UniProtKB/TrEMBL annotation:
The keyword Membrane applies. This is MFS general substrate transporter-30. It holds the Pfam family MFS_1. It is a multi-pass membrane protein. It is found in: Membrane. GO terms for cellular component: membrane. The chain crosses the membrane at residues 113-131, 137-162, 174-193, 205-227, 279-300, 312-334, 346-364, 370-391, 403-424, 436-458. PROSITE patterns: MFS (PS50850). PANTHER family: MAJOR FACILITATOR SUPERFAMILY (MFS) PROFILE DOMAIN-CONTAINING PROTEIN-RELATED, PERMEASE-RELATED. Keywords: Membrane, Transmembrane, Transmembrane helix, Transport. GO terms for molecular function: transmembrane transporter activity. Signal peptide: none annotated.
Length: 481
């Protein structure tokens, strides 16, 4: 096929080259040192940019907790269950809009799609600072859910297309770690912005939304020039990689799992992937984990202030140390996980940390012991987000199947957000027993789910070794335990 004909038929030069040449030749054209340099270049360009954008995404959807104790509750009359409803309503459009977003990301390209939605939700956040009634805030939260729905699954899917199975946990973790470290200072930033109270006649809590929204808009514009597209199109992303280097990255993925280039999209084939029950098992485990992460994000400042008796400044700032501790621990586990090809034991260990930390947070009499429980819960919950993502991507094949899996995980993550955003109720202060019990049950179910999947995968690997089964349609493919 001539190059011009290939372009007319929607087949890129990379597609054509990979099909014509062996993957060995594409890889061996670079020395081992040159290969490491190319991968490091991808690391430096791809992971930090996505991590920074995810940080503002998470801060923008969870800064309600900081604004709430900064005066928003009083100014907007957030009595009874109104605050919980505002937290909850975000996740309904967030979950409903997930399934098509990874398809849109694949079709439009991540550079255009992710930068556009970032700019739009930043503008929405600025609007939060000018609401007059709590119902207006409710409407803006619905819009925010629609706009943010495509971000996280798009990022997770994009990362999975660039790295081999046993490189992915470290990259997913750094992506999430950047978010954890930077968002750890969100409470401190919110406290600083509160000091603008009265400036231009606006309350301090309004400035939290306005300034953070402006920051998001600026990053959305910059992201258009920094985000790179899928590896087969990398040579077109502002000269990020040469065509030979793009071929090398695609060849690595092809050698690892034979699905580097997506097949033509077909809605029936795409949806047929939903028949694979393990996708929903991964999604359920992810949703149980996010029940904990969102509960921490939305209610930790409130628990510190109301439940433990800290002042506003201390409540805003004491959120940071547990998040920083979780970043250190999750990075250490990521290195071990990729080196020894393990996923399930790490997830189980983090769930056990939650089962130890949550009772300390809920039932200990000393504030110091309760705060130590916050460390354990935060480390366990945050550490499991990138690990579960990687556990799922390591054990499926196919670009569109991975796209569907990404959407399913984040949709269930949104359901976890609905649960985590409603179980800590004002009337349950200061012990918050229903929230404590719910998050404990969630961690226990994570242990059960991971245990069952590990048994299933171990038995399938044994059958494959005996030649009785071909896993994921590829000879030699084995599940990662």
């Amino acid at each position: 096929m001539a190059f011009d004909d290939a372009e007319k038929n929607g087949v890129s030069h990379i597609d054509r080259t990979i099909s014509a040449a062996s993957t060995d030749a594409c890889i061996s054209q670079f020395s081992p040192q040159e290969q490491k340099q190319i991968i490091r270049r991808v690391d430096r360009r791809l992971v930090p940019v996505l991590g920074l954008l995810y940080c503002v995404s998470l801060v923008d959807r969870t800064n309600l907790g900081a604004a709430n104790i900064a005066g928003m509750a009083k100014d907007l009359s957030l009595t009874g269950s109104r605050y919980n409803l505002i937290v909850l309503i975000f996740f309904i459009p967030y979950v409903m809009c997930q399934p098509p977003t990874t398809v849109i990301t694949r079709k439009l390209g991540p550079r255009k799609f992710i930068s556009a939605i970032t700019l739009l939700w930043g503008g929405c956040m600025v609007g939060f600072g000018f609401v007059k009634q709590w119902e207006q805030l409710l409407g803006l939260r619905i819009l925010l859910g629609v706009l943010e729905a495509g971000f996280f699954p798009g990022c997770a899917y994009l990362l999975s297309t660039w790295y081999t199975r046993y490189e992915l946990l470290t990259r997913n973790t750094v992506f999430y770690l950047i978010c954890s470290v930077l968002s750890a200072g969100a409470g401190i930033l919110a406290y600083g912005l509160m000091q603008m109270d009265g400036l231009s006649g606006l309350a301090g809590w309004r400035w939290i939304f306005i300034i953070e929204g402006i920051i998001t808009c600026c990053l959305g514009i910059v992201a258009y020039f920094l985000i790179v597209d899928f590896p087969e199109h990398a040579s077109k992303s502002w000269h990020f990689l040469s065509e030979r280097e793009s071929q090398f990255m695609v060849a690595r993925i092809e050698m690892d799992r034979h699905d580097a280039i997506p097949t033509t999209f077909n809605i029936r084939a795409y949806l047929s992937n939903a028949m694979d029950l393990k996708i929903w098992a991964f999604a359920a485990i992810f949703g149980l984990t996010t029940t904990n992460t969102y509960a921490i994000a939305y209610f930790l400042p409130v628990i510190l202030k109301v439940g433990m008796g800290f002042g506003i400044a201390a409540s805003q700032c004491l959120v940071a140390p547990p998040a920083l501790a979780s970043a250190i621990v999750m990075y250490g586990f990521a290195i071990l996980g990729d080196k020894y090809h393990i996923r399930g034991p790490i997830i189980a260990f983090n769930a056990i940390l939650g089962l130890i930390g949550i009772p300390l947070l809920g039932f200990a009499k000393s504030s110091a012991v309760r705060y130590f429980g916050v460390f354990l819960v935060t480390v366990g919950a945050n550490g499991n987000v990138p690990t579960i993502l990687t556990f799922s991507f390591n054990n499926i094949r196919g670009q569109w199947k991975r796209a569907l899996c990404s959407a399913a995980l984040v949709s269930f993550g949104g359901i976890g957000g609905i649960i985590g955003g409603t179980v800590f109720r004002e009337q349950d202060a200061p012990k918050y027993r229903p929230g404590i019990e719910t998050t404990m049950i969630a961690n226990a179910l994570v242990l059960v789910g991971v245990g069952l999947l590990t048994i299933k995968f171990y038995r399938a690997n044994q059958r494959a070794e005996r030649g009785e089964e071909v896993i994921e349609g590829q000879e030699g493919f084995r599940y990662t335990l």
